């Protein structure tokens, strides 16, 4: 029997602000601007929204949406505090809410002033889960995501022979895709040589292995699938969705295997819900806080075996026209950092066939991941409804 | 931005972790062990995840370990560390059965490898707080 949540929820509207480095707008204003765009894209009125899941910690609470959009009867206010895994995990929470009838239309939103406001190492300390890392690791000089995730990348290189050439391939292909999208921060080509020559941040991560600190907002509306059929856009349903939490969630250092994290638990559940596997995907939008993170997730998602993620990304496989086009919008590495909500938006657009120059021909089925909070993972499988 | 010298981030001991920092201050590496099943746990926490006992005791632990992985920090995300950069931070499998993340001193980048034998040492950061670091070599002094 099909899973009770399979295809019961749809992404009915998506919206984004401009992605920039520099803004006068607050994080809340960016969220609201993107939210209004997503609601209009769905063909809804803001007052139709009865559930709100704002990114946390992001400076906004559901009450801000009641106050600004005049929501008459908010039925669900929730946070999903999973760092970069938040947006896709929030999709699971929203899908449950609309599938059960608790809500009709749930808004998921992110607004971030990552360039003009607080930077990553400062933002991290606002995360409750970082309390122990803050106590035991910050004093010895480890507090930014690049520093926390670098030992995993180094271990992968030492154990499996993964190289910076593999890292560069992810960066260069992602940039090539970004150049096809009109709304990106990084709008000039990137070569393998430029990647290798970029300054070292936290070995083995160079500058161009790291995602952007940018300003921007993104939002989407999740509606019950049967309601979405009456709305404006082609229906894209949530076929499978899952979140996963690693062992030793509050410390990478104490995790038995530092290359195994929440996605390893989430992926089999999402595939089981959807009734499909990695080979069925037409494309994938993979959370790319770092180039290596993409390689690591491809393994945990079963696209290749453990240790083979480096060679897997080579030879055009992850580029448009390849076997598994990845991050067709430019990702966090080149488009902008809105905690991966842009990945969900891009997959939705691809399945609606609205992806412009980056359109994957006849895209029917795709996968999107979230990764963050020191190893939480989330994955959603979306499909274009028949 | 203020002109004040950047402050070193320091641990704020909790009710669970205070014994760890007190021992470190005395130059001892002490770890929390379950009083019921005897298993070690780090970072300190109220419940044993193996047997769910809330009783624990602190035991002095051996200082040796092997490098599990590492990073070399070049960009000082906190400007306190600007002078020290680039600095090596090693993630070490301690002989005591837990991991410790701490700076590794006196080893060149080219000599870093998984399994390298290191030993934990103690460095006062302030009058109240002592922090760990690693040096190369086995525990036999």
Description:
The complex is a heterodimer of chains A (386) and B (141). Chain A has 14 helices and 11 strands. Chain A has 386 residues and is of the alpha/beta class. Chain A has one domain: Thiolase/Chalcone synthase (Peroxisomal Thiolase, Chain A, domain 1, 3-Layer(aba) Sandwich). In chain A, a hairpin with a 3-residue loop joins strand 10 (365-372) and strand 11 (376-384). Chain B has 1 helix and 8 strands; from the N terminus they run αββββββββ. Chain B folds into 2 domains: 14-61, no CATH class; 62-141, OB fold (Dihydrolipoamide Acetyltransferase, E2P), CATH 2.40.50. Helices cover 6% and strands 37% of the residues of chain B. Chain B is globular and about 45 Å long. With 141 residues, chain B is mostly beta strands. In chain B, strand 7 and strand 8 form a beta hairpin. Chain B has one helix at 18-25; strands at residues 30-34, 40-41, 56-60, 64-73, 87-94, 99-105, 117-124, 130-136. Classes of the chains: A alpha/beta (386), B mainly beta (141). At the A-B interface, helix 5, helix 6 and strand 5 of A face strand 4, strand 5, strand 6 and strand 8 of B. Strand 5 of chain A pairs antiparallel with strand 4 of chain B.
Sequence-ordered SSE layout with sheet pairings:
The complex is a heterodimer of chains A (386) and B (141).
Chain A: E1 9-16, H1 27-42, E2 51-54, H2 62-69, E3 76-77, H3 86-99, E4 105-113, H4 120-124, H5 131-136, H6 145-160, H7 164-178, H8 192-197, E5 200-203, E6 205-206, E7 215-224, H9 225-228, E8 236-244, H10 262-274, E9 283-285, H11 291-300, H12 309-312, H13 331-335, H14 341-352, E10 365-372, E11 376-384
Parallel strand pairs in A: 2-3, 2-4, 9-10
Antiparallel strand pairs in A: 1-7, 1-8, 4-7, 5-6, 8-11, 10-11
Chain B: H1 18-25, E1 30-34, E2 40-41, E3 56-60, E4 64-73, E5 87-94, E6 99-105, E7 117-124, E8 130-136
Parallel strand pairs in B: 6-8
Antiparallel strand pairs in B: 1-2, 1-3, 4-5, 4-7, 5-6, 7-8
């Amino acid at each position: 029997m099909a899973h009770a949540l399979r295809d019961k929820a749809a992404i009915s509207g998506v919206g984004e602000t401009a992605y920039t480095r520099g803004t006068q707008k607050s994080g809340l204003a960016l969220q609201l601007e993107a939210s209004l765009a997503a609601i209009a894209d769905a063909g809804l009125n803001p007052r139709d929204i009865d559930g709100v899941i704002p990114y946390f910690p992001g400076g906004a609470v559901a009450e801000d949406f009641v106050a600004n959009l005049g929501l008459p009867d908010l039925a669900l206010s929730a946070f999903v505090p999973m760092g970069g895994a938040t947006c896709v995990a929030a999709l699971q929470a929203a899908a449950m809410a609309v599938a059960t009838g608790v809500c009709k239309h749930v808004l998921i939103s992110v607004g971030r002033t990552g360039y003009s406001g607080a930077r990553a190492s400062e933002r991290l300390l606002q995360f409750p889960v970082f309390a122990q890392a803050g106590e035991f690791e910050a004093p010895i000089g480890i507090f930014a995501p690049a520093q926390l995730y670098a030992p995993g990348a180094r271990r992968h290189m030492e154990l499996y022979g993964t190289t910076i050439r593999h890292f560069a391939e992810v960066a260069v292909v992602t940039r090539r895709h970004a150049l096809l999208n009109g709304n990106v921060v990084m709008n000039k080509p990137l070569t393998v040589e430029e990647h290798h020559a970029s300054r070292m941040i936290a070995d083995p991560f160079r500058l161009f292995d790291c995602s952007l600190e940018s300003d921007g907002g993104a939002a989407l509306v999740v509606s019950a699938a049967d309601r979405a059929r009456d709305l404006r856009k082609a229906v894209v349903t949530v076929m499978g969705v899952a979140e996963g939490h690693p062992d030793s969630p509050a410390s990478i250092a104490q995790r038995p295997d530092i290359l195994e994290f929440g996605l390893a638990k989430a992926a089999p559940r999402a595939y089981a819900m959807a009734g499909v596997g990695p080979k069925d995907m037409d494309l994938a939008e993979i959370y790319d806080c770092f180039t290596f993170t993409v390689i690591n997730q491809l393994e945990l998602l079963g696209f290749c075996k453990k240790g083979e993620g480096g060679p897997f990304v080579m030879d055009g496989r992850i580029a448009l026209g390849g076997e598994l086009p990845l991050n067709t919008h430019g990702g966090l590495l080149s488009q902008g950092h809105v905690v991966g909500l842009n990945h969900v938006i891009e997959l939705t657009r691809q399945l609606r066939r609205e992806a412009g120059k980056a359109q994957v021909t006849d895209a029917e089925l795709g996968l999107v991941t979230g990764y963050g909070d020191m190893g939480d993972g989330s994955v959603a499988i979306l499909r274009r409804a028949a | 931005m203020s002109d004040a010298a950047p402050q070193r981030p320091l641990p704020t001991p909790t009710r669970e972790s205070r014994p760890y920092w007190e021992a470190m201050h005395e130059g001892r590496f002490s770890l929390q062990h379950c009083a019921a099943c005897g298993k070690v746990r780090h970072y300190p926490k109220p419940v044993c995840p193996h047997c769910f006992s809330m009783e624990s005791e602190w035991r002095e632990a051996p200082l040796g370990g092997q490098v599990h992985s590492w990073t070399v920090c070049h960009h000082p995300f906190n400007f306190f560390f600007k002078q020290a950069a680039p600095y090596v931070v090693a993630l070490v499998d301690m002989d005591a059965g837990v991991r410790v993340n701490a700076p590794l001193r006196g080893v060149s980048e080219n000599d870093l490898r998984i399994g390298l034998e290191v030993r934990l040492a103690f460095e006062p950061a302030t009058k109240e707080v002592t922090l760990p670091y690693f040096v190369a070599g086995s525990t036999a002094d």
